[in-house]
Amino acid sequence: MSENQSKFFHSINQFTRHFSKSLNEALVPLGLYSAQWTIIYLLKTRGPASQKELSLYLGVEAPTMTRTLARLELAGWISKITGTDKREKKIILTDASIQKYEVWLEAVRSCEKNILTNVSDEEITTTMDIIEKMNRNL
Predict the structure, then answer these.
(1) N or C: which end of the chain has fewer CB within 10 A?
(2) What pTM, to 2 d.p., does this model score?
(3) If pLDDT is split at 50, 70 and 90, which confidence band does 119 have?
């Protein structure tokens, strides 16, 4: 692996950490953490999902997902219902989280907008293409 490639991955890691921190600064005052937001966003955009489906999609270990879901349920943002397979529970958003969703989304969009200052749509598309290629290699 070249030095440039190593720097590339280091930069991705550092960006991810700093982005999560910025997102937390925007969301924590609204009662949510960035890791919780990813679950809420996924449930809102894709619909109900099992804990296993959420873990696989987000690349999160089962114990971590269990803790995060427990906190979301305790806060009243999600609930669990019986799925088509009675052994499996589906995670859904509560009415409270659906009502709060637009406020959270606005905070996230504001954070993203600040971070994307001076970044063109073309650069965003190119970066998304690169990330998609790398994801296929995982």
Answers:
(1) C
(2) 0.87
(3) very high
